[in-house]
Design the sequence.
């Protein structure tokens, strides 16, 4: 049974806010890379700041405390999230500096939608399998169409 609108309203709002912050993060990291003169150091600085924020959040978050021992029992590939995130930060800095925040964000979003629907379809990485259907296929087509419109007429 699907979640009620009341139950998912806050998570949806937080997700939308996070999505709104993505282009700002691209611009912030691009500016930091210019200052530091190192894309890799920019990624490390960004992760350090994020890590400190997450540790603070863990210390004040309501509910059960983090079970650090349980983290050791997960699948090995789960530890790749940090490496993927680091590559994402470095890639977003390079893209933003070369293409601007608008096109960089459009490329990232179109890619994320396409790969997310593929991961859902296959049930990869521990996801619940959600088969491709006409609505999901249309989402991919629309994301790629948005990217094509954004690229149209570029020199």
Sequence:
């Amino acid at each position: 049974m699907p979640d009620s609108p009341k139950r998912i309203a806050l998570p949806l709002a937080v997700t939308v806010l996070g999505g709104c912050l993505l282009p700002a993060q691209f611009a912030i990291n691009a500016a930091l890379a210019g200052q530091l003169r190192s894309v890799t150091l920019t990624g490390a600085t960004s992760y350090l700041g994020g890590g400190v924020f997450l540790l603070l959040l863990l210390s004040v978050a309501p509910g059960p405390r983090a079970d650090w021992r349980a983290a050791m029992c997960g699948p090995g590939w789960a530890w790749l999230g940090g490496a993927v995130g680091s590559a994402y930060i470095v890639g977003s800095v390079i893209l933003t500096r070369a293409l601007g925040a608008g096109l960089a964000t459009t490329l990232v979003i179109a890619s994320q939608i396409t790969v997310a629907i593929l991961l859902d379809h296959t049930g990869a990485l521990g996801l619940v399998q959600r088969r491709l259907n006409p609505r999901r296929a249309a989402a991919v087509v629309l994301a790629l169409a948005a990217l094509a419109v954004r690229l149209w007429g570029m020199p």
Remarks:
- The chain is about 75% helix and 0% strand.
- The mean pLDDT is 90.
- Residues 5-151 form one domain.
- The longest helix spans residues 5-36.
